[in-house]
Write a structure and sequence with these properties.
Keywords: Aminotransferase, Pyridoxal phosphate, Transferase. Belongs to the class-IV pyridoxal-phosphate-dependent aminotransferase family. The protein has 343 residues and is of the alpha+beta class. It has six helices and 17 strands. The chain folds into two domains: 21-154, Aminotransferase class 4, branched-chain amino acid transferase, N-terminal domain (D-amino Acid Aminotransferase, Chain A, domain 1); 165-327, D-amino Acid Aminotransferase, subunit A, domain 2 (D-amino Acid Aminotransferase, Chain A, domain 2), CATH 3.20.10. The strands form two sheets. Strands 1, 2, 3, 4, 5, 6, 7, 8 and 17 form a nine-stranded antiparallel sheet that branches. Strands 9, 10, 11, 12, 13, 14, 15 and 16 form an eight-stranded mixed sheet that branches. A hairpin with a 5-residue loop joins strand 5 and strand 6. Helix 2 (76-89) packs across helix 3. The structure holds pyridoxal-5'-phosphate and 2-OXO-4-methylpentanoic acid. 2-OXO-4-methylpentanoic acid binds next to loops.
């Protein structure tokens, strides 16, 4: 199979349509069989639930080419599971988890020519989404839905890749305490757009959101979870008392990488913003972000500098180990790498 003629090494994190998407519709209480489609648009009633009461959830994962030429993706079962959790929280019918993984395989196989080659630094970003297509006018869940998966080749999410970025502490919250911050629903991202545009305009890669109840603890950024390294070399992972952090699959994998591959101690706890100057490294992690080192955190009355020159040694090792597992260069001890037969 011949690859598309793209400048793989210089892709940005932008959408470009590929050959196929996957689509399945929910009607009369059941999901249909689902199929690939070359139509990348959705036709909706003006009264569709998504347009009024924002019933939408999504996921993000990536397909890679390994060193040996296989096409793989990373822990798709975890995305299937989180999407089902997200759906239930806003009263949408979960797409069956085994069918989710099967649909990911189908759509990646159909777009194999778009999977970036090994070593290019690019990946095929896979974006499953689900929207309420049924009509609603009173405030209630719709009774018809569409599940889709689009794929698009991408480069680094935070410009600079492994070069440290700056973040600012937001004056706004991205989620409510005990609200929907722990699910992957578009409504959380709508909340984060105003502060995100503000942060970018001021030269920051993203926001650091503090806990929405007390504005005391570190939560996450607009598109990734935070990680810190303390003076003793331990990985410190912020937890939320208000359940408003998205349970990042990358972060949970890095906890296992740190413990099992690197022999590090991992401390998962609430992290006060006023203690982050005690740490020696900071990073943001997520599917899109992978691990992006944070060189500086700015708040109205405080500036914390970890160093803008280069990625710290622990973040570097975590990143190399995770990406090494994903690309097949490091042993996959936990069976995370999911091969897709593309023949
Ligand atoms: N936090 C937010 C708000 C995100 O959008 C993402 C991306 O999915 C993450 C964290 C990282 O999650 P994951 O590692 O599962 O991609
Ligand atoms: C991902 O990492 O997959 C996400 O969905 C984050 C998004 C902000 C691009």
């Amino acid at each position: 199979m011949e690859k598309k003629d793209l400048d793989w090494a210089n892709l940005s994190f932008e959408y470009q349509p590929t050959d196929y998407s996957y689509v399945s519709n929910y009607r009369d209480g059941a999901w249909d069989d689902g199929a690939l489609t070359a139509d990348h648009s959705i036709r909706l009633s003006e009264c569709a639930g998504i347009l009024h009461y924002c019933q939408e959830v999504f996921e993000g994962l990536k397909a890679y080419t390994t060193e040996s030429g296989d096409v793989v993706c990373f822990r798709p079962d975890q995305n299937a599971h989180r999407m089902a959790d997200s759906a239930r929280r806003i009263v949408m019918p979960p797409f069956p988890e085994d069918r989710f993984v099967d649909a990911v395989e189908k759509v990646v196989r159909a777009n194999a020519a778009w999977v970036p080659p090994f070593g290019s630094g690019a990946t095929l970003y896979i974006r499953p989404l689900m929207v309420a297509t049924g009509d609603v006018i009173g405030v209630k869940p719709a009774d018809e839905y569409q599940f889709r998966i689009l794929v698009t080749p991408v480069g680094a999410y935070y410009k600079g890749g492994v070069k440290p970025v700056k973040v600012q502490v937001s004056q706004y919250d991205r989620a409510a305490p005990h609200g929907t911050g722990n699910i992957k629903a578009g409504l959380n991202y709508a909340m984060s757009l105003y502060p995100s545009v503000e942060a970018h305009a001021a030269g920051y890669a993203d926001n650091m959101f503090l806990d929405p109840e007390t504005r005391t603890y570190v939560e996450e950024s607009g598109g990734a979870n935070f990680l810190f390294v303390d003076k003793d070399g331990n990985l410190v992972v912020p937890q939320s008392a208000t359940d408003s952090i998205l349970p990042s699959i990358t972060r949970r994998s890095l906890v296992d990488v740190a413990e099992s591959y690197l022999g590090m101690k991992v401390i998962q706890r609430q992290v006060r913003f006023d203690e982050i100057d005690q740490f020696v490294e900071c990073g943001m992690c997520g599917t899109a972000a992978v691990i992006s080192p944070v060189g500086e955190v700015d708040a109205a009355d405080k500036q914390v500098v970890y160093g803008m020159d280069h990625v710290g040694p622990v973040m570097q090792r975590l990143r190399e180990t995770l990406t090494g597992i994903q690309s097949g260069e490091i042993e996959d001890r936990f069976g995370w790498v999911h091969k897709i037969d593309v023949e």
